[in-house]
């Protein structure tokens, strides 16, 4: 996916969770809260791996979180996680840093979107 597609991606695509779980708002909110806890933990791990230049671990953690991001409809997070995977495979420290910063901002955006859903 190239950067021109980023504009079409949503911070939180509501439709994804409704297709997965129906209209059970309690269950949807539960999944979102689990994602946010996981995202916070994963972002801390990714930052630590980055400082230690452990690119394989960055890739693995990004891939792990990407699956959850897609499941809750956090499309922009999933995009940056894929970019982070690619940059870590290329051992591109500068790009990893940029994508980690973008990912952090996107996770904050998902948190805000989830907070306004209640």
TrEMBL record:
Pfam families: Hpt. The keyword Phosphoprotein applies. GO terms for molecular function: protein kinase activity. Keywords: Phosphoprotein, Two-component regulatory system. Residues 24-118 form the HPt domain. InterPro entries: HPT_dom_sf (IPR036641), Sig_transdc_His_kin_Hpt_dom (IPR008207). It comes from the Bacteria. GO terms for biological process: phosphorelay signal transduction system. The modification Phosphohistidine is found at residue 63. This is HPt domain-containing protein. It comes from Pseudoalteromonas byunsanensis.
